[in-house]
Q: What sequence folds into this?
């Protein structure tokens, strides 16, 4: 159980970090430039998000096969559109701020304006959103492993442990109970951590 937690948590954190980095990069660029590129990219995101993330992960896992890296790719692809749209929405608000007008007046390059001035101001809420999304990523990863598409034995991922234990539910119920409790507590812990991080980083919630 504890050994398998390294794979479960490592996979979920890797998926969340990759999704956050890609979301910040593309969301900041789309939001800053706007215009046709932004409109076209958002229509692509609409089509992308129209496919449920779990279904998309199942399709990708079926095509790539089971394994740690394959599962990371499958889960990351489903979460990218939401991350891009979230960052873009914040950048649209930031690009009208006075400090950006001052940066343009000083002939700062677009790259410097985006990644030195704008991104640091949208980073805190993005980190909070990513942290609160880790719980759902844990559930999706366990679901993929449970149906035989994610991380598979001999790698002791929690979803795979659940799948192995279902045949012995009457004789050895603890084979399902313990990994189920581990998943539930981990999801709860990340949700509570995300709430605490939001309270700490959001100035609107401070006295």
A:
């Amino acid at each position: 159980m504890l050994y398998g937690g390294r794979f479960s948590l490592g996979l979920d954190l890797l998926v969340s970090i990759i999704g956050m980095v890609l979301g910040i990069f593309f969301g900041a660029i789309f939001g800053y430039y706007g215009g046709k590129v932004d409109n076209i990219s958002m229509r692509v995101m609409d089509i992308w998000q129209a496919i449920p993330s779990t279904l998309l992960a199942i399709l990708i896992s079926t095509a790539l096969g089971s394994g740690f890296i394959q599962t990371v790719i499958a889960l990351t692809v489903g979460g990218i559109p939401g991350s891009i749209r979230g960052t873009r929405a914040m950048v649209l608000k930031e690009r009208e701020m006075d400090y950006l007008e001052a940066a343009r007046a000083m002939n700062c390059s677009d790259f410097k304006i985006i990644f030195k001035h704008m991104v640091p101001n949208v980073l805190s809420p993005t980190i909070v959103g990513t942290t609160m999304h880790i719980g759902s990523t844990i559930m999706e990863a366990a679901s993929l492993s449970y149906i035989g598409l994610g991380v598979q034995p001999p790698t002791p991922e929690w979803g795979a442990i659940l799948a192995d234990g279902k045949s012995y539910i009457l004789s050895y119920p603890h084979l399902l109970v313990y990994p189920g409790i581990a998943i539930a507590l981990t999801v709860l812990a990340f949700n509570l951590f995300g709430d605490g991080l939001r309270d700490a980083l959001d100035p609107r919630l401070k006295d």
In short: The mean pLDDT is 85. DSSP finds eight helices and no strands in the chain.
